[in-house]
Amino acid sequence: MSKIALNLVAIFVFLMTLSTLLGSMFNLSPTLPALATFTILGIATFDSFGLQGKGGTIFLDWIAGFSPKHRERIIHHEAGHFLVAYLLGIPVIGYTLSAWEAWKQKQPGQGGVSFDDAELASQLEQGTLSAQMLDRYCTVWMAGITAETLVYENAEGGADDKSKLAGVLRSLGFSVSACEQKQRFCVLQAKTLLQENWSAYQALVDAMRQKATVAECLKIIDEKL
């Protein structure tokens, strides 16, 4: 999404500059570019402070949604999270494939796969997080990037996943190098799980493309395992 945001800003700046330079040629009032700029900045300010940036996120995600390739990347990314969570025994309680769907379901950010992470939160609060629990969740967080890379040879999404993993590891006292090592380890773990269950992954992608329910997705996975 950051690339899309930068592109939109660049286009806006270009159009405003062009309208200023060519305004006299087409008898355009010089106040029009200024008014447009003021309006856009006003909307952006309201979105930042009133909506915590959700409006901009929804708009940019809506623009990106016109690209079939972008939509497919999201589906493949989220299917990676979904399948690996299921394989590691972490309950999946929902998923969204756009910022608009996430907003309607009162989820933060651009959405994604939602897990029942009550046990993780409880262990973090008590300071008793087991190595096994940590590895399971870290592997799930890296599964989206891993799935996207397996399909497209690179990953455009996953910045939030990396941030979440790094945040948890830093809270546990991991150094920067230890965080990077854990991330690489979990990517390899996720890659192995996905490759060993590739038919289930592909079936899940097809199901999520049709916006199947969580229960339907789980049934399809069970049938392929």
TrEMBL record:
GO terms for biological process: proteolysis. InterPro entries: Peptidase_M41-like. Keywords: Hydrolase, Membrane, Protease, Transmembrane, Transmembrane helix. One of its GO terms (molecular function) is ATP-dependent peptidase activity. It comes from the Bacteria. The chain crosses the membrane at residues 7-26, 32-51, 79-100. This is ATP-dependent Zn protease. It comes from Fischerella muscicola CCMEE 5323.
